[in-house]
Specification:
- This protein is an alpha+beta fold.
- The protein has 2 domains: 179 residues, Jelly Rolls (Sandwich); 102 residues, Arc Repressor Mutant, subunit A (Orthogonal Bundle), CATH 1.10.10.60.
- Helices cover 46% and strands 17% of the residues.
- It is built from 11 helices and 9 strands.
- The strands form 2 sheets. Strands 1-2-8-3-6-9 form a 6-stranded antiparallel β-sheet.
- A hairpin with a 3-residue loop joins strand 4 and strand 5.
- Helix 8 crosses helix 11.
- The longest helix is centred in the C-terminal third of the chain and has 26 residues.
- The chain is elongated and about 65 Å long.
- It starts with 9 loop residues before the first strand and ends with a helix.
- The N terminus is likely disordered.
Length: 320
């Protein structure tokens, strides 16, 4: 289906099977629309659960990803306040969060949306990967997103009574486009988006994130990059905003927290695997940066995981 072929007011809500629920990420509806300048918005009458006006706003029981390909407007929620919407903006609507949005009467807009739910996306919100505090994002590549929206619309239009499992994959692609915006293109190279960085800084970042599990020092980084330590420190501070040592520490701390959260590897082994000289050094860094010991951090994360898993089990029981 071409991009132009779907640019009309249309939507479809679909039944959800037990298989989709078990996948942890499922679609409940999708649509697209072109709102011309001075048109009434929303244009069509949706089911009562999804209908809203600007004056009343609404609260949904699930998530929606609303992408504005063209035009301008405004979005408002209790968490974000009023936010200006421009072309290439993704609005994420969260369950139980009041919100409202509308196009500018002077420009109208072209919108694509999906309505989704599931334990997977709920877990992402619990982990603060997605947050109502960050509900609006400007994305760079609209063509990729529009292709995914169009494919979802095609699939559920052709299979209105039993959506293919592959729909969930396209939903995931849309969400990952948002996540790619929220994190730098390479999560290991935590450089400022939209900024050109020197080859020496990029090389230093690569060296740190690829080799910081060894006993890597600032001088060693500079030597491997092929520039003096003084010049590299100056470039790094200017372009990244902190020192090379800060980045080394951040990298090691990041790896240590993940190992403590996701494995049962002894704390001493975590320290060496993360690049700390010993467990005592890692403990000092944890106390300084997180105000907690590695053992306490592991215990807290395990308790958090247990509460989340219990909540998900309860949610599944309520659905059955």
């Amino acid at each position: 289906m071409s991009e132009k072929a779907v640019l009309k007011e249309s939507f479809i809500y679909v039944p959800v099977t037990e298989t989709q629920i078990k996948l942890g990420l499922y679609l409940t509806g999708s649509g697209t629309g072109v709102v011309r300048p001075h048109d009434v918005y929303p244009q069509q009458s949706h089911p009562e659960l999804y209908n809203f006006t600007w004056n009343s706003g609404r609260v949904l029981p699930e998530y929606q990803f609303v992408f504005i390909a063209e035009g301008e407007g405004e979005f408002e929620s209790k968490q974000t306040g009023k936010v200006k919407i421009k072309p290439g903006t993704m609005m994420i609507l969260f369950p139980n969060v009041w919100h409202r949005y509308r196009p500018s009467i002077d420009t109208g807009w072209t919108e694509y949306w999906i309505s989704v739910n599931g334990d997977l996306i709920f877990d992402w919100q619990q982990r603060n990967i997605l947050s109502p505090l960050a509900a609006v994002h400007h994305l760079q590549d609209s063509k990729v997103l529009i292709r995914q929206y169009n494919e979802i619309i095609r699939l559920i239009t052709e299979h209105p009574l039993h959506q293919p499992t592959s729909v969930s994959a396209h939903v995931l692609m849309i969400i990952t486009e948002v996540l790619d915006h929220m994190e730098p293109v390479s999560p290991n190279l935590r450089l400022s988006k939209g900024k050109n960085h020197s080859k020496h800084v990029i090389a230093a970042m690569t060296e740190i994130w690829n080799h910081s599990h060894w006993q890597l020092s600032v001088s060693m980084v500079a030597e491997r990059v092929g520039v003096t330590r003084r010049n590299l420190e100056r470039l790094f501070k200017k372009e990244v905003g902190h020192t090379i040592l800060n980045e080394l520490t951040k990298c090691r701390l990041d790896r240590a927290t993940r190992m403590l959260s996701e494995t049962q590897v002894p704390v001493k082994s975590v320290a060496y695997a993360s690049g700390f000289s010993n467990a005592s050094t890692m403990t000092r860094v944890f106390q300084r940066e997180l105000n907690i010991s590695p053992s306490e951090y592991r215990k807290a994360r395990q308790q958090e995981e247990l509460l989340t898993s219990r909540r998900n089990v309860k949610s599944m029981k309520n659905k059955s």
